Amino acid sequence: MINFLRFRALTAVISLFIMLSLIGVAIYRYQSRGQVFLYGIDFTGGTQVLLKFDKPVSGVEVKNIVETKGWKGAIIREFSDQEILIRVREFASDAQGLGDRMRVIIEESLPGYEVKILQSESVGPGVGAALRWKSVRAVTFALLALLIYIALRFWSFAFAIGAVMALFHDALVMLALFLFLDREISINVIAAILAVLGYSINDTIVIFSQIRDDLNKMKDYPLAKIVNISLNQTLKRTLLTSISTGIPVTVMLLFGGEALRNFSLALLAGIIFGTYSSIYIASPIMMIFYQIKNKKTT
User: In angstroms, rounded to a whole number, what is the distance separating the alpha carbons of residues 102 and 252?
Assistant: First the structure.
């Protein structure tokens, strides 16, 4: 039997380090560029076009062409030597039409190159600000709803706090990953975070259900031993679920192209840390509040 709880102090230090690093990098990014995260077009407003070139091309060269043709302040992101994302402040109701104009201009300025549009989208600045606020509310309401659900499901505040703290940890870790890698936060990333919250809470409920059953069966056992036994009993199911969902997400991350990169990256990080938090965040925190309530010692 694996003694999972033997590592709870170490995992607590690791999680604390991630949280402190998130705060440190957030402060640095805010001081250096005036905002913490790099937001996608969904939240900032404007138009962005993802182009694929048939040959390697320089992002600096593409930026010069775009700015020379009237799109001053264009932001260029190179995802590979053949895929470039162009973001401009101009809002176009016909994003595809603006993308076609860019494509034609770039092909004329770079003879011998063939350019394809992989993705194009436009969002008004007012809509972008509203979406950002709605995304924050969606994640907050999801956490509150899950807190109430777990409390009613197990009739225990200790279980509810453990589960929601694990979910909060998962959301912060995914945001930390995007902050560290300087990846864009888009509406797809928010959707991935919400999906991971549902995935993670399912795993936590399975573990907590086993813990509750074992608490009734092993009333004379120390709490730590009961939790350890329950974690080992559900380990096979946890690993099978994580692996079976992780494989297709990994394939999507590797071969889905840049349009799906951030979405699949958030999902994969959520699956990995969702499994980790169910074992090393939810259960230890539940034990703390359970002991406080029942005045038991491990």
Answer: 28
Distances (CA, A) of 22 to 133, 282, 285: 21, 21, 21
* CA triple 235-287-238, angle to 5 deg: 15
CATH number given to 46-123: 3.30.70.3400
Are the beta carbons of 113 and 107 closer than 8 angstroms?
yes
Which CATH superfamily includes the segment(s) 4-33+128-294? Answer: Multidrug efflux transporter AcrB transmembrane domain (1.20.1640.10)
Return residue ranges of the chain for CATH 1.20.1640.10: 4-33+128-294
> 164-220, pLDDT tens digit by residue?
899 889 989 999 999 999 888 888 888 888 888 888 888 888 999 999 899 888 888
Nearest 5°: phi and psi at 94? -110, 85
Closest CA to 139 of 189, 182, 202, 177: 189
- Residue pair 15/8 in contact by the 8 Å Cβ criterion: no
